[in-house]
TrEMBL record:
One of its GO terms (biological process) is tetrahydrofolate interconversion. It comes from Arcobacter defluvii. Its cofactor is Mg(2+). The keyword Translocase does not apply. GO terms for molecular function: 5-formyltetrahydrofolate cyclo-ligase activity; ATP binding; metal ion binding. The gene is fau. Coiled coil: none annotated. ATP binds at residues 6-10, 130-138. Its EC number is 6.3.3.2. It holds the Pfam family 5-FTHF_cyc-lig. This is 5-formyltetrahydrofolate cyclo-ligase. It comes from the Bacteria. It is an enzyme of class 6 (ligase).
């Protein structure tokens, strides 16, 4: 029953996100990226996990460009592997993979740990747990880590349920940044 509510909520959030105008989206992206930059600067984080955005997600590409220019910052992105992903250093070119997700080539370098993980969400439930696309890749990734980085959820517009829709394995945000 809860999964039906979660699925319906996911669909309604995706629908809302798909109907944001291009101008509004551009403006919202700029606001969110500035907030993320400020948070990263204040936290003095060195190893940052970002993502290559899909159409309805916050466009963090300008943030990736900015962080890559800084000597004391390392930018990582997910690289799909099995039922989850591993993190790889961001570098060009990017290749389109499963689910139309772009990623760089595989890398064998692995950081000791990431300090901040910036994670896209479709929605969040009443206790700030992530509602994603339903594949569970981020949940599995964080479950397999032996430490907990600061987790920041990003979303163009807040889509939050008044109910608890998450399962115990769904990841929870330390911070949520939206426009």
């Amino acid at each position: 029953m809860k999964n039906d509510h979660k699925s319906d909520f996911r669909k309604s959030c995706i629908k809302k996100l798909e109907f944001i105008s291009l101008f509004s989206k551009y403006y919202k992206n700029k606001i969110i990226v500035k907030k993320l930059e400020k948070f990263i600067k204040i936290s003095e984080s060195k190893n940052i996990l970002l993502y290559i955005p899909l159409g309805i997600e916050v466009d963090v590409k300008p943030l990736i460009v900015t962080l890559r220019k800084m000597k004391n910052k390392n930018v990582y992105v997910p690289f799909m592997q099995g039922d989850s992903f591993k993190i790889v250093k961001f570098r060009l070119p990017l290749y389109k993979k499963k689910f139309a997700i772009k990623e760089p080539n595989n890398s064998f370098f692995k950081p000791n740990k990431i300090d901040i993980a910036i994670v896209p969400v479709v929605g969040i439930d009443a206790i700030n747990k992530r509602i994603g696309y339903g594949k569970g890749m981020y949940d599995r990734f964080f479950d397999r880590l032996d430490y907990k980085p600061t987790i920041i959820f990003t979303q163009l517009i807040l889509c939050k349920s008044k109910e608890i829709l998450s399962d115990n394995y769904d990841i929870q945000a330390d911070n949520i940044i939206t426009s």
